[in-house]
Amino acid sequence: MYCNxxxxxxxxxxxxxxxxxxxxxxxxxxxxQAVLGKKEVQEALFQGLLSYKPNSPGTFSQLESKYPxxxxxxxxxxxxxxxxxxxxxxxxxxxKHYLCSISYGNITNALKNIAFLDTxxxxxxxxxxxxxxxxxxxxxxxxxYIIENKNNANHKYHKEFSHIYNTSGANLxxxxxxxxxxxxxxxPPPRKIHNDFGNETIRQEWAEYNLREQLALLQLxxxxxxxxxxxxxxxxxxxxxFRRCNFGKNQSYHELLEERHRDMCMKIVYLETCLFIVVSxxxxx
Length: 285
What we know:
By secondary structure, the protein is mostly helical. It has helices spanning 5-8, 14-24, 29-36, 39-47, 59-66, 71-80, 88-103, 121-149, 158-168, 172-184, 192-197, 202-225, 232-244, 262-281.
């Protein structure tokens, strides 16, 4: 998996459950279809990182009126929105899933044990923030797993995966290209995050998550190109993104990168070059 191991162990959110179910192959096909067959699940999977809706005026007030007694957590939502552009209610769900992961509860009673949990800003802010970025990577990894195994007759769920892909995957290439464009134009959080999170390395951690998301998306796009033509306009968008970072060599946040990031940067270079060669070889241009 692509996430930091410490936080992998913490995540028992909805997507972690899906990952565990699909990779263990212990569910019946009917039970798996009951989960993966849900419209909202398929939409989130195929929209990927775009399934996180941007913050809009008024939603925090609605959230505040719904949970007036949760002042600390509402403050957490507001602070997080300074650093991630996500809808207030989606951030609230992230917080509840995170609380479940450390209290062994479930989403319906996530707030009941709040008095016994550490909700200090310097504790909960960086942990929910990392939880969010790990969940983003889970979405991409689960989709890759489904695509890799949908035609694998030896996989228990290949028929279910194939059905899901054929049902909801019509605009997947467009979605992946849009996600890659968004990830490669993202900017690091401002330095103020160091004080709010009480963490001096949080911006370097953001850079690592961004590199991992680029890698995951490039792998997905290459997988998809094996099966379908990439429209010219989508490849032009990708090519502009490749040129913007000199085929992965010059990330816009290079000052945050360290020696430990070199391997991921080189993988991006190779994948972008490989993707360009494959598309050119298939004469899509």
